[in-house]
UniProtKB/TrEMBL annotation:
Pfam family, one: Pentapeptide
Gene3D superfamilies cross-referenced by the UniProt entry: E3 ubiquitin-protein ligase SopA
Superkingdom classification of source: Bacteria
Region Disordered, residue ranges: 1-35
InterPro entries (alphabetical): 5peptide_repeat, Pentapeptide-BTB/POZ_domain
Name of the protein in its database record: Pentapeptide repeat-containing protein
Organism: Streptomyces viridosporus T7A
C-alpha cells in the first residue's frame, strides 16, 4: 500500500522556496483591505485580528510576530514572502495561493486552507492544530520540525511533499492523492482516517509495523492469536 518511487530511491525531493526578500518598508497602514496590494512591506508585531484582506496580494513581504486571529485572507495570494512567529486561531486562507513562502515557528489553530494552492512552501517549527487542507493542492511542500495535530488532507493532492523531523498526529487522508510523499521523517506518524490512500508515499519499516493494525483493519484482515 505504501511504496517507494520507481527505482527504489525513495520519493522525489521537494523544491524548497527561496524568497530572497529585498529591503522592506514598515507597514504603517491601519489595517488590511479586501483585494489590497501589499508589495515589499514588513508587518512586525502587527495585530491583524479580525481584519479582512480577502483577495489581497502580498508580494515580497515579511509578517513577523503578527496576530492572525480570525483574519480573513480567503483567495489571497502570498508570494515570495516570509511568515515568522505568526499566531492565531481561525485564520481563513481558503482558496488562497502560497508560492515561494517560508513559515517559521507559527502557533496556529483551526487555520482554513481548504481549496488552497501551496507551491514551494516550507513550514518549519511551531505547532499547528486542526489545519484544514481539504481539496487543497500541495506541490513541493516541506513540513520540518513542526507539530501537526489532526491535519485534514481530505480530497487533497500532495505531490513532492516531505515531512522532516515532525510529528503528524491524527491525520485525515480520506480521498487524498499522494505522489512522491515522503513520510519517513514523521514521528509519530498517526493516520486517523484514509490509510488506504497511502499509495504514492514512502514510509519506513518501523512506521509500517506501527501502522500494521490500521492497515489490516482497512483491508478487512482479522488478526488473532
Amino acid at each position: 500500500m505504501a511504496r517507494r518511487a520507481a527505482g527504489g530511491t525513495g520519493a522525489k525531493r521537494a523544491r524548497r522556496p527561496e524568497p530572497g526578500l529585498p529591503a522592506l518598508e514598515r507597514f504603517e497602514g491601519g489595517g488590511l483591505e479586501p483585494d489590497g496590494d501589499y508589495d515589499g512591506l514588513e508587518f512586525r508585531e502587527t495585530d491583524l485580528t479580525g481584519e479582512n484582506g480577502a483577495g489581497a496580494r502580498f508580494m515580497d513581504c515579511a509578517l513577523t510576530g503578527c496576530a492572525l486571529d480570525g483574519t480573513r485572507l480567503s483567495r489571497a495570494r502570498v508570494l515570495d514572502s516570509v511568515l515568522a512567529g505568526v499566531r492565531g486561531v481561525g485564520t481563513n486562507l481558503a482558496e488562497a495561493t502560497l508560492r515561494d513562502v517560508e513559515v517559521t515557528d507559527a502557533r496556529l489553530g483551526g487555520t482554513q486552507l481548504h481549496g488552497a494552492v501551496l507551491e514551494r512552501v516550507l513550514i518549519r517549527g511551531g505547532k499547528i492544530d486542526f489545519l484544514n487542507l481539504r481539496s487543497a493542492r500541495l506541490k513541493d511542500v516541506v513540513f520540518e520540525g513542526c507539530v501537526l495535530v489532526e491535519p485534514d488532507f481530505g480530497g487533497a493532492r500532495l505531490e513532492r511533499v516531505e515531512f522532516v523531523d515532525c510529528a503528524l498526529k491524527g491525520a485525515d487522508l480520506t480521498g487524498a492523492t499522494l505522489v512522491d510523499v515522503d513520510l519517513r521523517g514523521a514521528v509519530p506518524l498517526e493516520i486517523a482516517r484514509g490509510v488506504d490512500r497511502l499509495a504514492g508515499a514512502v514510509i519506513s519499516t518501523a512506521q509500517l509495523l506501527d501502522l500494521a493494525p490500521v492497515l489490516a483493519a482497512a483491508s478487512g484482515i482479522r488478526v488473532e492469536g
